[in-house]
Write a structure and sequence with these properties.
The complex is a heterodimer of chains A (about 290) and B (about 230).
Chain A (H helix, E strand, L loop, with lengths): L2 E11 L6 E11 L3 E5 L6 H9 L6 E6 L2 E2 L11 E4 L11 H9 L9 H7 L15 H11 L7 E5 L7 H16 L3 E6 L2 H7 L2 E6 L2 E6 L1 H7 L4 E8 L2 E8 L7 H9 L1 E7 L4 H9 L7
Parallel strand pairs in A: 3-8, 3-9, 6-7, 7-8
Antiparallel strand pairs in A: 1-2, 1-4, 4-5, 9-10, 11-12, 11-13
Chain B lengths: L1 H15 L2 H17 L6 H11 L4 H15 L2 H5 L6 H27 L6 H24 L4 H16 L18 H14 L3 H31 L3
Helix pairs in contact in B: 1-6, 2-6, 3-6, 3-9, 4-6, 4-7, 4-8, 6-7, 7-8, 7-9, 7-10, 9-10
Classes of the chains: A alpha/beta (about 290), B mainly alpha (about 230).
């Protein structure tokens, strides 16, 4: 499959502070893939994303985006990319529809129907309302949908569900999954392990400017978990739990006795969570915002 | 096409922020005061008013516009659209120059009934406005809020406005014509009281060249300090 982003030996140091934010980073993202960049604050996720978007210059190594080195792209780059930051950046005195129309005017491509976009994120009835009266969640939804209106091939989202209630977070996640089904590529930066698990085909764990591991959430969870089965059952009015090795379940008399003689309440395989993996690999705890 | 769209966006933004309302009131006040002045001093007073306020409004307004765009974060969205930095700057300069021209003409027409070289008047206002708007962009690029902007604006005001008084009777005023604001005021006064065609053409050419060079410099500052935050 064609690589939309290919990053080779990427390094970047902030001139003002001398801090090396990105250190020999290598990864690639295929066409139609949702790729998650996970890590604690200050790990270099946002710097890497901003380098690829082209908001920071002066990197060493290579960033190839849609077949061309990033530093060689003109602003036409943004005809094919959409960006939504983790904070809503909107014209507060303008209405929702005016905000979208104003930015839409800068694209050569025909943009999607504005009413349809607003309807998708539950803002149609607020289309003519000034944005300064919106809640943070409404602003985040408008901010998100603005990044999609020119139907870009590649999208960058930074904490797309931040500040959203579960219902609206679900709406945003559904839209991202639909973008993926339509063949678009998504580069997602998040602290939210649940979002990463639900949306990403692959994730990369970043710490101190380096990627420490890359893989699909499912395979990483299995690889870093244990091959145990946790059985919860009721015994004399008490709730008990026991761990059994999955390799020997069929011949384990203790397990068979629990299954046959007790009232089983729950059965859980013991794969690791993404947060467990992160802590295990880096020794650092993710800070949720 | 993008620059035209950006121009209308800037007009809409300024209108919604209430910039126009404030300025209509200011024009009204100036026009009333100037219309009461005696005929012998009204033209000079009108020229000085047009120069000191509508022509220079770009310096005040651009600070407000850019600080608002920074504060609301939209500047960081604009840099992720196909809008080029030069188009962003051009549209801002155009929008504020159109506003300066409209308000200058309104004041001039409502205040006096003397003969005016309107072409020279318009060119002088447009060149002054674009010059001060670009100065405003340079100042605002490294400011975090309006208060900081107002403070940093003071040296520019001293540098470019104070020498203009040399035109009011200083014997070696021609020395100061190298300062763009003085050259622009000389043209504006010339629109009312007459100026030799050769001098007018030289000053216009000089200001046009300076505007071009300043635009190149402003573009560099804008990209370095706002787009890439180097």
């Amino acid at each position: 499959m064609e690589k939309v982003i290919e990053v080779c030996d990427l390094e970047f140091t902030y001139k003002q502070t001398g801090k090396k934010a990105v250190d020999r980073m290598n990864f690639s993202i295929s066409d139609g893939e949702v790729f998650g960049f996970l890590g604690p604050s200050g790990a270099g996720k946002t710097t890497t994303q901003r380098l690829i978007i082209g908001l920071i210059r002066g990197y060493s190594g290579s960033i190839s985006v849609m077949g061309k080195e990033r530093s060689l792209w003109s602003k036409d780059f943004f005809e094919e990319t959409g960006v939504a930051f983790d904070f809503p950046n909107l014209y507060l005195k303008l209405t929702a529809a005016e905000n979208l129309r104003l930015i839409a005017a800068y694209y050569r491509k025909k943009v999607s129907d504005i009413d349809m976009l607003l309807d998708e994120v539950g803002l149609l009835q607020h289309r003519d309302q000034r944005v300064d009266s919106f809640s943070k969640g409404m602003k985040m939804r408008l901010n998100f949908v603005r990044s999609l209106m020119h139907q870009p091939r590649l999208m960058f989202f930074d904490e797309p569900t931040s500040g959203l209630d579960p219902v609206n977070a679900h709406v945003i996640k559904d839209i991202i999954l639909r973008q993926k089904r339509e063949g678009r590529t998504v580069f997602l930066t998040t602290h939210n392990m649940s979002v990463a698990e639900q949306l990403c085909d692959r994730v990369a764990f970043v710490v101190d400017g380096r990627i420490v591991v890359t893989g699909s959430p499912r395979s990483l969870m299995i690889e870093h978990g244990t091959r145990d089965l946790k059985v919860g059952y009721s015994e004399n009015g008490n709730i008990c739990e026991k761990l059994f090795d999955m390799e020997t379940l069929g011949t384990n008399s203790d397990f068979l006795s629990v299954i046959n003689e007790k009232k089983v309440i729950s059965l859980h395989s013991c794969e690791a969570s993404l947060e467990d993996i992160f802590i295990k690999l880096t020794g650092k705890r993710l800070v949720c915002e | 096409m993008r620059v035209v769209n950006a121009f209308f966006s800037d007009m809409l933004f300024m209108f919604k922020q209430g910039f126009f309302t404030v300025y209509v009131i200011v024009i009204g006040i100036y026009s009333v005061i100037l219309s009461f002045l005696p005929d012998d001093i009204a033209p000079m007073a009108t020229a000085l008013t047009v120069f000191s306020d509508p022509s220079v409004l770009g310096l005040f307004f651009i600070g407000g516009v850019i600080m608002l765009e920074k504060g609301q974060g939209v500047l960081y969205v604009l840099v992720t659209t196909p809008l080029r930095s030069r188009e962003y700057l051009l549209s801002k300069i155009l929008a504020l120059t159109v506003l300066a021209l409209l308000s200058s003409f309104a004041i001039a027409v409502m205040s006096t009934h003397v003969r005016v070289n309107w072409l020279l008047f318009a060119l002088s206002v447009a060149l002054t406005s674009s010059f001060f708007t670009m100065c405003g962009v340079i100042i605002s690029a490294s400011c975090r809020n309006v208060n900081e902007y107002m403070l940093r604006m003071v040296p520019y005001m001293i540098l470019f406005v104070l020498p203009c008084f040399s035109l009011l009777g200083f014997p070696f005023s021609w020395l100061f014509l190298a300062i763009p604001s003085v050259a622009a005021l000389k043209l504006l006064l010339g629109a009312y009281s007459g100026i030799s065609p050769m001098l007018a053409a030289s000053l216009l050419l000089y200001l046009a060249l300076l505007s071009y060079l300043l635009f190149r410099f402003t573009l560099r500052v804008f990209e370095r300090k706002i787009v890439f935050n180097d």
